[in-house]
Amino acid sequence: MPQDRRTSFTRHNSQDMRSSSAPGGVEHAVRVELDGLVGQVPEGPEKEKFTKEMDDFYRLYTRYLHEKKHSKPLDWEKVRGPKPEDVIAYDDLEHKDFKDVSPLLNKLAVLKLNGGLGTTMGCVGPKSAIEVRDGQTFLDLTVQQIEYLNQVSGADVPLILMNSFNTDEDTSKIVQKYNTHNVSICTFNQSRYPRIKTDSNLPLAHSPENKPGFWYPPGHGDLYESFANSGLLDQLLEDGKEWVFVSNVDNLGATVDPSILQHMADTGAEFVMEVTDKTKADIKGGTIIDYDGQVRLLEIAQVPKAHVDDFKRVKKFKIFNTNNLWISLKAIKRVIDSHRLDLDIIVNNKTTDDGTAVIQLETAVGAAIKHFKGSHGVNVPRSRFLPVKSTSDLFLVTSDLYLLENGQLRMNPKRIFKTVPVVKLGDHFKKVNDYLARFKTPPQILELDHLTVTGDVCFSADVTLEGTVIIVANYGAHIDIPRGAILNDKVVSGDLRLLDH
């Protein structure tokens, strides 16, 4: 890998789509609008890049129109659980450590999906910059993991970040602090597509400028095209890399696993999806299915409304996709070059700040499973799925439930039960700053099974929570949990105010 800590990868092989649409109709109108946007960009590399993005968007949009008119809905009668050979148990894999697979690690790259913002948790900027443990961010922990991996194995595993236009500028500044670390960091941007007005079916944007609300990143399924367009895919292949491990940057359990890497090499599989057992908290997660004899990923957005409840049943669909994916780089190159990567389109209906109804056409990275040879799932332990999507998740990862070792969180061996407690924090805890203000120190929860907190509640230092604890401050009431309190199978309600002296 190049030693440049942040290399800009650009490849210009735009394929002109202008002649593909007949005059008249929505397709032609959209093509004219897109050409108008392209015409406003000055000549040069940026125009070539923007032209390629608009061509890719046009291809996606015309496919959406065609499928909307001609495609048949999912036939629920053909939906089956995966065949036994399509999902392998992790425990059946041969156990390996980093030193065992050092030659294979030299052929691996790690790619984190880094396009999301921290707005849902009340934070500004990339979600990867949120502090999640001991003052360290998602990105800090990721760099530590790979640096440690390179150190103990003697390998050179690079870290790649797929940013969006929302996160690129801030991420570019943040990664500079890792210049002295033993890890090569490269970034590239996923595409920037125009939102489409629902009433006119035309792009909302009238200018290529990145005005808030007019453009969107089209989901992580855009990885394949953007990866190839950046030139980074070709660069990795030239450097002798064979596989890429893809995961969400906010999944603290998504670390390089030597046993799965060895499994990729032994089986020659081009695509392996990590799945894990579904619980009631995961009922909306996508799952591997057998559809007409083919392995596919089924997302809840694709399920007919009449069968949504059936999809959510844990007994029928027992596993879900963690979005930890192991993929052959050569296979990505082949599929992209063949122009056959037609991922299932997810239509996301949105409303702008001024009330305009728009749609976003998105795709999921795991949906590509059907395009690769030997694709299958590996049913991994729950510890490999540790996302932080809310402050309830943050509560868990900052607690004594986990120990931090070389950037990786491991469950504390002092916890008797290896399941994770169910934690539900109310709206008063929704934003990170509010959450932090309500806990003097993280409570001790090694013996906690379930915690629900609603209303205006604050926790003093050294609180211990055990069993099932429910704390409810009714409207207008306030509850202070005192210093050193031990709550074991307790329900606390009403109004309780205590002052520390």
Structural class: alpha/beta
- Counting H and I runs of at least 4 residues, what is the number of helices? 12
| Spatial arrangement of strands, main beta sheet | 2-18-12-15-11-3-6-7
Shape: globular
* Helix share, percent: 10-25%
Radius of gyration: 24 Å
Low-confidence stretches: 1-8, 10-23
Walk me through the structure.
This protein is an alpha/beta fold. It is built from twelve helices and 27 strands. The strands form eight sheets. Strands 2-18-12-15-11-3-6-7 form an eight-stranded mixed beta sheet, sandwiched between helices. Strand 13 and strand 14 form a beta hairpin. The longest helix has 26 residues. The protein is globular and about 65 Å long. The termini are far apart.
Quick gist of this model?
The protein contains 12 helices and 27 strands.
Mind sketching the topology for me?
Layout (H helix, E strand, L loop, with lengths): L24 H15 L5 H26 L8 E2 L6 E3 L12 H4 L2 E7 L16 E3 L2 E2 H16 L5 E5 L4 H7 L10 E5 L3 E2 L1 E2 L17 E2 L6 H7 L2 H7 L4 E6 L9 H10 L3 E7 L9 E5 L2 E5 L9 H5 L6 E10 H9 L8 E6 L5 E6 L13 E4 L11 H7 L4 E4 L2 E4 L10 E4 L6 H6 L10 E7 L1 E4 L4 E9 L5 E4 L4 E3 L2 E3 L8
Parallel strand pairs: 2-18, 3-6, 3-11, 6-7, 12-18, 21-22, 22-24, 23-25, 24-26, 24-27
Antiparallel strand pairs: 1-13, 4-5, 8-10, 9-17, 11-15, 12-15, 13-14, 16-17, 19-20
